[in-house]
């Protein structure tokens, strides 16, 4: 099976799978959001995949709703449709869905000159990152079965990166999804701010989520004392509510 050969030899560090010994046609995959996208460092577990008997002549089936011409859930151009000799579902979903500018993923919509949609695209990235952070909290609170250890280890390793990026976004130092020069310190600084002020709605949402993430990461075993600082009041309130 083409997909299995790729997974065995060339599985990217950002994709992990669990398989069923008695059912080689089934697998569950998790994709780590890539750097340079509003999904960065998040975990996305919505990939339960079945390979039909006529695979790879027909694309695999995915549990859940997604509009993607690659797996025949949306019409597309010849280049966008499933190609039995070249297409691989996990790598394609990572590249086509969890990308740097998801605003332009809307199927069947002709955006014309993409440069005229910069403001809308940035706002969409901000909303996407907020949802991604909420997903992080949900996954930490209730990790998928058989992925418990993986989830805990992932966020222990990525907690500081996520917090530094979140703070930079809140302060308007960089645009959401841009590559960030992460330093191993809570006081990472950036040479200049982006043009214009950060979105107030985004700042307010992320201010609360930042404290929730910090608390969740500490409970998960991360040493983040240097990050508590001004967030101690919010963390105390959240702890009391819990």
UniProtKB/TrEMBL annotation:
Pfam families (UniProt xref): UQ_con
Keywords attached to this entry: Transferase, Ubl conjugation pathway
An annotated Gene Ontology molecular function: ubiquitin conjugating enzyme activity
PROSITE patterns for this protein: UBC_2
Domain UBC core: 1-174
InterPro entries: UBC, UBQ-conjugating_enzyme/RWD
Coiled coil segments of this chain: none
Organism field: Macleaya cordata
Superkingdom classification of source: Eukaryota
Protein name: Ubiquitin-conjugating enzyme
